[in-house]
Prior knowledge:
By secondary structure, chain A is of the alpha+beta class. Chain A has five domains: 5-125, Four Helix Bundle (Hemerythrin (Met), subunit A) (Up-down Bundle), CATH 1.20.120.160; 138-396, no CATH class; 427-480; 484-663, Histidine kinase-like ATPase, C-terminal domain (Heat Shock Protein 90, 2-Layer Sandwich); 668-819, CATH 2.40.50.180. In chain A, a hairpin with a 2-residue loop joins strand 19 (734-742) and strand 20 (745-751). In chain A, helix 4 (84-105) runs antiparallel to helix 5. Chain A is globular. By secondary structure, chain B is α+β, with helices and mostly antiparallel strands. In chain B, the strands form two sheets. Chain B has a six-stranded mixed β-sheet with strand order 8-1-2-11-10-9, with no helix packed on it. A five-stranded mixed β-sheet of chain B has the order 3-6-7-5-4. In chain B, a hairpin with a 2-residue loop joins strand 1 and strand 2. Mean pLDDT of chain B is 80; it is low at 1-6 and 162-166.
Amino acid sequence: MAVDDRFxxxxxxxxxxxxxxxxxxLLDLERRQGDRAHLDKTFRAAHSLKGxxxxxxxxxxxxxxxxxxxxxxxIRSGSLAVESDVIxxxxxxxxxxxxxxxxxASGTPVGGSPAINARIHTLxxxxxxxxxxxxxxxxxATTTESESVKSKPVGKAKASGSDAKxxxxxxxxxATSRVEEVARPGSPQNERRGERQTxxxxxxPGHDLLRRGVNPLGVLDxxxxxxxxxxxxxxxxxxxxxxxxxxxxxxxxTVDLETDAELERIHDVFLFLSEDxxxxxxxxxxxxxxxxxxxxxxxxxxxxxxxxxxxxxxxxGASRKRASQGVEAAKxxxxxxxxxxxVEESSASHREKPAxxxxxxxxxxxxxxxxxxxxxxxxxxxxxxxxxxxxGSLSGGNHPSATGGGGVGPPGSTYGQRAPARIRVDAAQxxxxxxxxxxxxxxxxxxxxxxxxxxxxxxxxxxxSLERVSRQIRDTTLELRMVPVDxxxxxxxxxxxxxxxxxxxxxxxxxxxxxxxxxxxxxERLGDPMIHLIRNAVDHALETPQExxxxxxxxxxxxxxxxxxxxxxxxxxxxxxxxxxxxxxxxKKGIALGMVPxxxxxxxxxxxxxxxxxxxxxxxxxxxxxxxxxxxDVVRDAVRGLRGSLSVESTPGQxxxxxxRLPLTLALxxxxxxxxxxxxxxxxxxxxxxxxxxxxxxxxxxxxxRLCVAVRGELIPMVPLRKIFQSRGEAPARQELxxxxxxGQRVGVAVDKLLGRVxxxxxxxxxxxHGLNRFSGATILGDGTVSLILDLAALVSxxxxxxxxxxxxxxxxxxxxxxx
Amino acid sequence: MINAVSDRVDDTERTxxxxxxxLGGEGYALEVMRVQEVLDVATLTHVPGAKKTLLGVLxxxxxxVSVYDLRELFGLPVENKxxxxxxxxxxxxxxxxEVQVTGLLVDRVSDVLEFTPEDIQAAPQLGxxxxxxxxxxxxxxxDGFLLVLEVDRVFAALGSQAAEGx
Lengths: 820, 166
């Protein structure tokens, strides 16, 4: 079966999420030593991934996941202790799994890891082994067939693995006799046979099941793994060919499963179906009846309870008995060999049970076949009534229209649950929407001027409402772009754990304010800078336990990640309680590199910012992880690229904090509207430290061949915008200088006029203009004209590059030039 | 995919509509499917530092759209205003998965005409000056020829130019 690309894409998306969940779960598991709720969640993540991989036809991934799942299941059953090396192995396996998924996504599949498989195998079958894994069944079914009734062995191909185990447990014998018991309702032995029970599971998948890329046969296979199964379906539910929509799933299944697996295992099988499918699980009772355990009771039961169907309780009791005879008949059906055939055969013989039990038919059963089978089994045929009911409820389909029949599961029960109301949307569409909403707000702002016009007074209220609503729309759409910073933070427990392991350090990670929301793009791009800082903290800043003890530090090494609002910005801190910055060393290095003047005091506040300069590293030895020459300047640039800032606070011997300060959103920009040579530009407020007016030539001076302006006694290099833009005409006598910081140095960009502040929605410039770094985008102003957004940093670099071209000297140096 | 479908439609319907525009004394034809709309020249925002072919950017219902001068690209004199009633053709182009709209300034938009594929003759390999690489074929019309514009090559040329920066 060719799997639609769409389903594969959905799988990859889902798999990534599940892998994150798996990792989180494993880390939680280690921390909380097998807290049940976390364990289940983790297990489910593995299980879901396995199932999903199976369904989109990626058996390699499914198989490899199975190993992880099995280990987790052992932990769940208590036969495997949660030890650090077990978690370590599982984490490694998860990583490999992630590699497999990504490789598959990029079209270059990678196989499972034999090394990890071998280790998992040792773990499972080594000395710690006590319980065989849950998969039993197939050999039992086989034995059953040969020794008593001729039921069809299912899933033979999968049997070999568990074969030996179940035999070793001495279960085969019991199982055999058990099957005989099943066939005889009301047997007193029924309930005493340990946990081995028979369940009747009715699966009514949603019509869209196939469209979602779910292969229901995979579910049946999984059930077969749990124990002996008899599967029945009802082909009569399938509409005639000319009415058939091949993408819809019309079939329902009734599965009689005999298993000693826990009920939960059965539930796990249906994880994928649960969303829009109806699944009920009934346990077979001693008297041959069924007790509803979970899910909505099948409509059958409802009908049974309704007097209007004219079926008496006594009758149904009697028919139950016939039904069980039917089971025998079913099992006796000879030569059901081919799986397809088996389903068909048993569909006829099995279907009779529900039908006979209530002679009614229902959404999932009833129908001619059932009627035929029932009469064959000697029951009074429900005849026309049955067919009618069958048809009637068929159209009623899967709607929980059930009018309060007895035994109906609570509406919100396990499988009836709806996923929380969230939908995935295309990020590009969302960005479009944000742009349009911003535009709407601007347009409505423009219209507000109409309120001054006497003729429009009647629309005063409308205009006010328009303004309010359009702003709300803008704010709400902006809010949609925001995601909790937890999406970023959740990666770090693993990072810290692995790093701490490697450096032989004991580190506690604390996370505060993970619910703080930030622009999606920021959250996506902040990962690498943060990992860089965390690595630094683990590698350089935090001491080994011995060192800490020697220094009298009682607390363990700790890294605290916190996020929170600071005015209209979000501050993210990465704090450690390690040794703190070594200012003496930084100054020495700074002097050696010619970045600071000789004799600079280590207490100079500017010393701290030295570490952000390109090419600065106090490490002489190149560390394995950090100190590879890629320094904090990269981190700083990345943060600046997000219109944020990076600063550091440090107390010797007590620790260091790096603080990112970021805008709430990248879609909106607080800017200054400026004018040069008749054109208006927007300058991001975040890039401007100060605005100073100066009168043209009088203050300008040349320093070392560079145009400078004296601002409060300090000579500041000036970059005239007119010059860069090669504008025609003369600059006005009075200009404005926008002071910004470039490579640690104050630089002024001269513009003609300052027009005011604006809040602008950023749009990217067209594809053809990407090479033009001096503009970071464009925005539409209140009057509808387009204004370009200046990137001061790029402008200054550009002018520096041009200067060094003409003067033949590179524009390096941090303070030296400006202070001279 | 979309092209494949439209090709089939062409084969059955035989004809396709073309926007006819004038540029430097020549008549050009461009598939109507590619043209989103035709605008009068509005206020353009100048982009300092961009290639000369980029006239500027404008606001097309809330989207910032670049407008290029085809005269510049085709090596025609820009200052000659005679007989011009400049319009901007808003043309759809594809950059990877994204559909983008780009404005092309032409002298005048005159007509929309239908032609069958047989009406289009192969273009000469030279003789059209700088416009040669951008002409896909010729259509005999009235007492002259219309040049069929290969607009994707126009975009490719504009894109590579702008990326060079100054």
